[in-house]
Each structure stands twice: as C-alpha cells, then as structure tokens.
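Sequence in, structure out.
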Amino acid sequence: MEKYRDESLSVQERAEDLVSKMTVEEKINQLRYDAYGVERLGIPAYNWWNEALHGVARAGTATMFPQAIALAATFDDELLEKVADICSTEARAKYNHNKKNADFGIYKGLTMWSPNINIFRDPRWGRGQETYGECPYLTSRLGVAFVKGLQGDEEIMKTSACAKHFACHSGPEGIRHEFNAEVNNKDLNETYLPAFEALVRKANVESVMGAYNRLNGEPACASDYLTGKLDEWNFEGHFVSDCWAIRDFHTKHNITKSAAESAALALKHRCDLNCGDTYQHLITAFHEGLVSEDEITQSAVRLMKTRIKLGMFDESTKFDSLGYESVSNNEHKQFSLECAQKSMVLLKNDGILPLDANQVGSIGIIGPNADSLDALRGNYYGTADEYTTFLSGIKEVYKGKILYSEGAHLFKPSLQPLGQPGDGLAEAIAVAKHSDVVVLCVGLDATIEGEEGDTGNAFAAGDKTDLLLPESQRILVENILMINKPTIIVVASGSSINTKGEAAKAIIQAWYPGQLGGKALADLLFGNVSPSGKLPVTFYEDADQLPSFTSYSMENRTYRFLENNVLYPFGYGLTYSKVKCGDLKYDTKLNKATVKVENVGEFDTDEVVQFYIRDEESKWAVNNHKLCGFKRVHVKKGEKIEVSVILSEEAFTVVDDSGNRFVNSSKFILYAGISQPDAISFKLTGSKSSALSIIL
C-alpha cells in the first residue's frame, strides 16, 4: 500500500508522501483551483471551487436558505450551525453521486468557499448581503458556528469551510481590483480581523481566502502583515486567492511586472491555491529562479492535507452512504422555512399586525417583489425544487379576495418595453382602492445589489448609490400611501433601505428569505408565528450623512461608533408581544451574566436577549457600547424565565492605537434587554434595558 493511502499514518505524513512522488509540473498543477489529475498516482482531477453561502450554490437542486444577512438577523448560532450542517450533508450527497459519474467539474466538490465574514461597515456595499452584519462579535459567533456545521466534528471533515475575504474588503465593488484600503492598527484589530482570528482559533477553519484589494499598500493575497497574522494565530490550513486576484498584481495594482512575478509573489506569501489562471506561470517563475521547488512543495502538501482530511484517498468514509434523498428533502425545506420565520424583522407596527383573516374582506398585494423569485434568492444561490413567493404564500393562508398588481418595474421607469414611465401605476392604484388592506412588496434583488461582474446592475457595480428604493418604486410607494388604505410595506433586500414609508401601518424587513419566504411572510402577517428577527446592521436615514465609501475608518460607522443618522438601530426588531428584562446579575468568578425575562404581552414569542457592555474608563473604549452576549429564547405569554450567558474575557478588553488588545479599565456597565441600551431603541420598543455596574 502506498503510504499516502495508509489511514493509520498522520495527515502530514500522507500528504508529504503523496507530493514527494510528483514532478515539479505536477505539483504546480495541484495549485490551480481546477487541479489536474495525476493518473499514475491515482489522483483524480479536482475543482476546488464550490459555494455554500446559504445552501449549496450553482450546482443544481439544493435547499435554499435565507441569505446570510437574514440568517444573521436570527441572532442564533445554533441555527447557523444546523444550516451549515445541512449544506454539508447536501454537498456530500451531491459529491458522492457526481464522483460515481466521474464528474469533477466546478461546484461539484467538498471545499466550500463560505462563509463571508467581512464586516458590513457601509450600507452601500452590494455584497454586504453575504455577511453577518456590522458587529465583529456577532460575526465571530455566527461564523464559528457556520464553520463547525460545514466541517463537522468527526475525524474526517464533512466538507471544508473558508473564511473570506481576508481582509478589509467591504466595498466599493467597482474599484476592488485596484483599491488600496488604508486602515489603522486600531480599526484592523478591533473591527476587521477579530472574526478571522475567531474562525482560525475557535473553529479550525480549513481555508482562508484573500481579498482583491491592497491593505495599506500590500496586496491582500501577498501581504506580509496578513501572512504574519495567520502565523500568529497558528493557522494550519490552506490559503486561496480570490478569483483572478493574483492577476490584478500586474494588471491593476501594478506591484509586479509580469504574471510570473505575480505568481511568485503570491506563492512566497503562502497563497497555496490560485482561483484564476496566473499559477500556470509558476513553471516560468520556477525556471527563472523566482520560486523554489521547496516553496511549491509546501503549498502542494497543504492542499493535499485538505483532500486527505476530506477522506478523498481513504478506502471509504462514513459520509459515503449519503444519497441523493438527502438533497432538498422535506426536513431540510421545513428548516429553511423556520429560518425565514425567525429572520424577518418587524420594524414598525401601528397595531395592524397580526391580521385577522376573518376581519379582512380583501387584500391588495402590490409591487415588483410580490411575485418575484429573485426577491427570495439573494446572490450565490442554488436551485430550489419549489418556491413560495410573497403573493403565493399569502394566497395559501388567506382564502378571501386577493387583488394583485406588479405596479412598477424593480428599477426601470416602465414595466413594458414600449410602455410610458409609470405604466403600472393606474392598475396598482385601482387594486389599492378596491382592497381593505394593502401589502406593498418592494425592495431590491441581486440583479441590482451584489458582486461586481455578477449582477445586471449598471448603476454602481452592484453597490448602492443611496439608501432609497429605486425611483420607480419610490413613485409607487408614494402613490399607494396617498390612498390612505391600511398598508403594510414588505422590503426584500440584503441591506438597509429607507422606504420613506412613514404613512405605512407596518414595515417588515424580509431580506432575501429563501425558497419558502412567502410562506414565512404569510405566517407572520396572520399571526401563526410572532416576528422575532433583529437587525444585524444599522439602518441609516441618509447616505449623504455617511462617511466616504472609500474610507475604512470606523469613525461614525456602525452602532459602536455612530453619532447620528439612525433610522432603525442595530439589534432592533419588534415582536407581537412585550418582553421585559430585569434583575441583571453578574458572577465575576464564572464570568456569567444572568437576567430575568418576562413576557407580559398577549402572544407567545421568540425573543433575542442581548447583552452589551460599556467601558467607563479607558480612552480606547468604543464610543458607545458593544455586544458581548446574546441568546434567542422562546417565552410564552405570562411566562418568566432566567437567561444566562458567559462573557468572554474579550468583552472587557480594548484595542489601543498600536493594535494591542488588553484590559484597561476596572469600571464597566453591563446591559441586558431586547435591544441596544440606546435612546432610539427605547423609543421604538418602549422597553428599557436592565443595567448593572461592574467593578473588576
């Protein structure tokens, strides 16, 4: 038996043995995302590129979960781990089937390039929908859970996860290939890097993907600083470039003069795997003495270690039995529905919700996202075997009279190619006038917010230029609200939108809620389920008051540092009930915070108990306060429960101007409530957080 097939040996020994049998050319060919097979060694071709952002993507049928930003709105790390476990189950089942048919093409493998743990620092960023929001703590907790779900806890990894994009990429999309993100040491180590460190140290994430941009002058895929961080964190997996990012070295960033130089620079900074085609020039770099065979060997060994960890050279694995019945089965789809129910955020409710189906004679459903599949998907999506749009979901639950009008194009002036601007307005107005209640479904979809080059958006390469609805929809909203019928605005988007819907009776942020999003919306509208999602990002009033999009300073950004311009705060979201938190206590020996939670309302509901901490002494403390714990609980009406969380030592730390993290204070205020402990949240919820002074 070849040593690399001997399962009794260590992964390192097996990988070294396998690579030692390869020629230089064969080793280099393993460093491509579309790796060549080596027939004489029994190594099949393998394509490393697969995606599982919110379900296995781009590979045919799979369960489609709500988009990542929606999953973040659940504030539920156990839920995220289960989502990822389902993704890995379906990826394995597909892989097993494809392997039997010798199909090793793109999106068919076990190396999932998810999750995206960049910080959603600016609401204009189109790819922010792929993230877990603006908070490093929330992102870290959810990202760790997602990685654990993908990789599993067995000796053989179920699938491998990837922490991306390292580091400091959160827009603008249009200039990402040449952009230099200038970030000071405090912001780097306080905001942009903690989630990556958490995924490496706490979840043993198998791979890290470099970003397109430069970071303080260094390309992210060949950065001394970032490579040093991976070494500091004892990262043992492999590093992969973003797709065609290494080509940018000589074509956009102008830091090298040729493809061979770019390939050599990346490899010397331990970029093991090239998504792109620049590493085909590594053979030239080798012959020109720009890289050594040892450097090529080291990267090849790291990549073979991943394949060995996935069981690719074992006789069999426990996952081989996963069959196609595991893909998009009823259990998985039901969980997608549950995720959607828990992710939608009730931003406003003037008492109209929940609707009583027996008291409503007719419902008008209006808007470009009412019957749209794209409004369910977000980006990086798979193909569902069934969909429930908002319109069809309401029809399933409500058996009274329903009127429907698209009303307006998502962003174009007219619905019909030869139509006049506003050609859908008259019908929409008629529907509203003939309805007792209007459900106005507006927002965006991934054709106009998303990744540069991956959208049909001609406005800003997938980014937003402002925080408003497209003009066609603004006109629609204004006209419908003028009719003065009770109106519920439902927003599908992956980012914050100011609908200017002050006259609406209720507003629901539905995100991109996955394949059964329409059923989830109907369940919330008619009170089968109480809304319980919380905003993982701040909803700002006006883009003109935001810092420059190209500034990576955290000044006046996100809930920890903002000074003004808040429409709806981070952590905010209403339910149909009223939950109070009180009698907060903290055990310094156990680092345990405990609060009593009581449902004094009229509905059973999920609620997210949130813990925040404020440093009262250190000059390096965040301006406001920071999330340090959370727990989703179900509380029946009239029920009292006790909720406890363990605070990490990091909750009490600050980061100084040099990027050092340490405890610099003995006085803190700990808060526990259903939102942030800020004045706007209190005004919106009517619920005040419990507060406790802590002396260390």
